[in-house]
Write a structure and sequence with these properties.
Layout (H helix, E strand, L loop, with lengths): L1 E5 L3 H12 L3 E5 L2 H10 L1 E5 L4 E3 L3 E3 L2 H4 L2 E6 L6 H8 L3 E9 L6 H5 L10 E12 L2 E14 L7 H12 L3 E4 L3 H12 L1 H8 L3 H6 L1 H20 L8 H9 L9 H7 L10 H11 L4 H27 L1
Parallel strand pairs: 1-2, 1-6, 2-5, 3-9, 6-7, 9-10
Antiparallel strand pairs: 3-4, 8-9
Helix pairs in contact: 7-10, 8-12, 8-14, 13-14
């Protein structure tokens, strides 16, 4: 069983590390100093569920060098999917399972523009983790879970195979018979990240102040209303349950989008609040709070992408 983990950040590094620890043949796609550290000193995972180190870990900066894979776990940022999907063909067999774990609800559509849709299974994960330093992944909140399923809600052998792989790696894995709904539920939750970025708060600060808590509530309800307009099967009580869940998040935690915006890096804003705005416009659903968040972050996003482009041009 050969597994390619495309992206060795907080998500790919953690789940790929668990799979490698279970003695699966795992190869990471990584870049720069992070790649060099993994190649020279292995992958270190610090976790609230127990630390571990994978020595002699296989890692490369070339998808082609990975070779044909049985499972491809796509763990890049959402904005990287379109470009990287063009390279995935070189490692896909007819029955290779491609499991995307990006935030947002558009990944499968983008992937299908460049690889066969038959290879793609719907997926998402729940974890709060990050690259702490080159070669080091820090999982610091939430009990990790991977959720996946066929978009037509069929039970399939490949879904059972994926579950058995994650079970062996002691990762909580759930086969969903409503993966579209599960993707939207996570999408609604993760879009709070933009509000954290704009208000420069963590989850604890955001939820305890009356004014920002109200903004959070309105943002969540806007996206839920949009999901109902699109006939996504989400129960009416979901927004209240989500707010109660956010109340349990460790006080100091933030999200990857939030940290990217604060640090001046390109973010997933187009795939989070930006997607809400565009779908709202398309289907005539008002999304004023999400539009405010998106509009505030957009100038910073443009600067971050211009800076990245200029940096690449100098290399």
């Amino acid at each position: 069983m050969k597994i390619a983990v495309i992206g060795a950040g907080g998500v790919g590094g953690y789940f790929g590390g668990r799979l490698a620890k279970a003695n699966f043949d795992v190869t990471f796609l990584a870049r720069g100093e992070h790649l060099r550290e993994i190649q020279q000193n292995g992958l270190r995972v610090k976790s609230i569920n127990g630390d571990f180190i994978i020595e002699n870990q296989q890692a490369t900066d070339s998808i082609q060098k990975i070779g044909f894979a049985d499972i491809v776990i796509l763990a890049t940022k959402a904005w990287q999917v379109c470009d990287i999907s063009r390279e995935l063909r070189s490692i896909l067999k007819k029955d290779t399972i491609v499991l995307p774990l990006q935030n947002g609800v558009l990944t499968a559509e983008e992937l299908a523009e460049n690889i066969p849709s038959a290879n793609i299974i719907g997926g998402l994960c729940k974890i709060i983790s990050k690259v702490e330093s080159p070669g080091v992944i820090n999982h610091f909140a939430l009990d990790p879970v991977v959720i996946f399923g066929e978009f037509d809600s069929r039970g399939t052998e490949r879904a059972e195979l994926l579950k058995s792989v994650f079970d062996r790696a002691e990762v909580n894995a759930i086969i969903s018979d409503e993966i579209a709904a599960d993707l939207w539920k996570k999408f609604i939750a993760i879009c709070v990240s933009g509000l954290l970025a704009v208000t420069r708060t963590n989850y604890g600060e955001l939820r305890e102040l009356k004014e920002t808590r109200q903004l959070m509530t309105e943002l969540i309800r806007e996206i839920f209303t949009l999901s109902q307009h699109l006939q996504i099967n989400i129960e009416p009580e979901f927004p209240d349950r989500l707010i109660s869940l956010i109340d349990t998040y460790p006080y100091e935690t933030t999200s990857s989008l939030t940290r990217d915006v604060w640090d001046g890096r390109p973010s997933e804003i187009e795939y989070q609040n930006g997607t809400v705005v565009r779908l709202g416009e398309k289907y005539g659903v008002a999304t004023p709070v999400n539009r405010f968040v998106y509009s505030c972050i957009l100038p910073m996003e443009i600067k971050a992408r211009n800076k990245m482009t200029e940096g690449n041009g100098r290399n």
